[in-house]
Fold Helix-turn-helix domain-containing protein.
Amino acid sequence: MAEWLSIDETAELTRCSRATINRRRADPDFPLPFAVGGRVYFVREDVVAWMAKKQNAPRQQRIHRDQADQVAA
């Protein structure tokens, strides 16, 4: 069975703030969250796959997306 991560656990795993996780939820490349009992969760495997994809992206693409996140903030 898949492991569920809360927003705080997702933030810890990705080494991002809770606010950054909430902003990234609007990014179509970021894993889709789901709600159970009014709480938001992510599937750990999806978050790890997203991190690997981001890490393996060309440097220019990573910089561009990070700058876009900063501008949107």
